[in-house]
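In this supplementary section we document a worked example of the pipeline. Step one takes a protein sequence of length 309 as its only input; no multiple sequence alignment statistics are reported here. Step two produces a three-dimensional model, which step three serialises into structure tokens for compact storage. The input and output of this example are shown verbatim.
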Amino acid sequence: MKTRILIRCGAVILGIGAMGLAIGAANAGPGRRLAVAVAEPDIAAIVREVGGDRVEVFSLFSGCIIRKDLQVEAAARERLKSADVVVWTGFLPESAAISSVLAAPAGETEKRQQQPRWIDVSRGAARVSVPVSTCEGYVDMDFQQGNPFFWLNPRNAGVIARNIAEGLATLEPTLANTYLDNAKRFGEEAERRVVGWQAELAPLSKLVIFSTQCGWHNFAQIGGPTFVVCKSTPGQLPSPATLVAYVNEKNVEMVLVDPHTPIEYTLAFRSGTAAKVIEVPSSIEGIRGATSYFDLFDNLVKTLVGAKS
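The serialised model returned by step three reads:
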């Protein structure tokens, strides 16, 4: 079979350009915190743990990043232009959206003397749904590294934290040990939390869950229920009728819908299947009062255990 690989030239160029910007940003200096722009709210929570009172953190995107024409949130654009650091997930549409804000406006030749330091937190993270050979034929460049929601596997927390610490340390070498120690403590706490979640989820090991959010099968890597998804095109749900038939075919007992899932899907699951339908946010931005990365998984586990009991 002839392999066909989709190459998004614009995204690739912007992605490479983004990495080129990694040479930038000077030390924040005494008395001023580093302004850190972070792609995802859940990763922003990790940045706060690693950076402590030396960082001022804000998020760039809201909702699912797998959508057409991904753009930096309007409220974050001006802050991004003066950021010292950009923390991203290695997902090319993120770099394209961020770079478009950082680029000089049309007609202007002058650019900032200092560009932000880019930190890719995906380095070394375990992935799911990684293409294993060219025999798969069609490989979208955006997904060549696998499912982009790797942070939904809490076992990646320590890797993410260390990537953040190493990046911040390049800007503030005198604080390198502080950042690295914070990352180490965070990673150790994540491992302790994983053990606790595994114990709580052990009775649900035979449970099959369908999720409209295509990232929860990253969480399944720690054990417990089996998460299944059904998407012919990344970021796009098939029709409600197609998913109802899929859920019934797989004998799914529970369906998780994200707050961003269109209501017609929720109604279709409730009327067309015997599965219990539950709304569970896939980011702490959708959980009232949540501020910690661990809050995301505490909420999920509590919801699953409570729904099954």
